[in-house]
C-alpha cells in the first residue's frame, strides 16, 4: 500500500507540474499527457508552422556574404539604394550581399553590403530597397531546387518569387513560378580583385666613360 501511495503521489505531482507549464508550452502538456495515457503523440506541424510565422529572437543570427548570380541575365543582383536589378558584373561592390537568417526555417533577409538597403517585395509584387528590413515583406525563404539553383520565395506573399528578366529588370512576383528560369539563382563568392601591379620604371643613367689604359715604362 505504501508503494502504491508513493506511485500515485508522484504521478499526481507530475501532472500538476505539467499543468503549470501549459501556460508557457501548451504542446509540452499535450505530449506528456499522451505519453501517460498511452495515446498517439500530437502532430507538431502546426507548432512549426506557427513558429515560422514570427521572427526568431532567441536563436543566434547567422550571417553570410556572397553574390547572387541570375540564370537569365547572366549577371549578379545588385542593390542600388531603392533600385534593384541583376546587371552587376562579378566583383562589383554593389553586388556584395549580406544575408541574415531570420528563423530556423531557411528564411533570410538580404542586405546590400555597400548601401545597407534590404531587398523587399511590396503589395504589387515589385522588388524595392528599404533601409529598414524588419518587416515580413523583406523576408524570403531559400528553396534549393533539383538543378542546384536556389529560388527565393516571399514569406509575406506565398507563391511569389524574386525574379529578373534577361535584361536584368525585376519581375513582378505575381508573374513568377518556381520552375521559371527567371527565379533561379546561384550563390557565388565575390571575386577578389587582383592587386594592381606596379609599373617598372627605368631610371636613366649617365653613360660610363672608359678610362684609357696607361702604358707602363717598359711599354712600346
UniProtKB/TrEMBL annotation:
Region (Disordered): 190-220
Cell location: Secreted
UniProt keyword annotations, A-Z: Growth factor, Secreted, Signal
A Pfam family: FGF
Signal peptide residue numbers: 1-19
PROSITE patterns: HBGF_FGF
Family: Belongs to the heparin-binding growth factors family.
Protein name: Fibroblast growth factor
Amino acid at each position: 500500500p505504501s508503494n502504491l501511495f508513493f506511485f500515485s503521489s508522484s504521478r499526481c505531482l507530475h501532472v500538476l507540474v505539467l499543468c503549470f507549464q501549459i501556460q508557457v508550452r501548451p504542446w509540452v502538456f499535450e505530449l506528456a499527457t499522451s505519453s501517460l495515457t498511452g495515446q498517439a503523440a500530437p502532430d507538431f506541424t502546426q507548432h512549426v508552422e506557427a513558429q515560422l510565422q514570427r521572427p526568431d529572437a532567441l536563436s543566434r543570427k547567422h550571417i553570410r556574404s556572397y553574390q547572387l548570380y541570375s540564370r537569365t541575365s547572366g549577371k549578379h543582383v545588385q542593390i542600388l539604394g531603392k533600385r534593384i536589378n541583376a546587371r552587376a558584373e562579378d566583383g562589383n561592390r554593389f553586388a556584395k550581399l549580406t544575408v541574415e537568417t531570420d528563423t530556423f526555417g531557411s528564411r533570410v533577409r538580404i542586405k546590400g553590403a555597400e548601401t545597407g538597403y534590404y531587398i523587399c517585395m511590396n503589395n504589387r509584387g515589385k522588388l524595392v530597397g528599404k533601409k529598414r528590413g524588419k518587416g515580413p515583406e523583406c523576408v524570403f525563404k531559400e528553396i534549393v531546387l533539383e538543378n542546384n539553383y536556389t529560388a527565393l520565395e516571399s514569406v509575406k506573399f506565398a507563391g511569389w518569387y524574386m525574379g529578373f528578366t534577361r535584361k536584368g529588370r525585376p519581375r513582378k512576383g505575381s508573374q513568377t513560378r518556381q520552375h521559371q528560369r527567371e527565379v533561379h539563382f546561384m550563390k557565388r563568392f565575390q571575386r577578389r580583385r587582383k592587386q594592381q601591379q606596379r609599373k617598372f620604371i627605368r631610371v636613366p643613367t649617365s653613360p660610363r666613360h672608359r678610362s684609357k689604359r696607361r702604358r707602363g715604362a717598359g711599354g712600346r
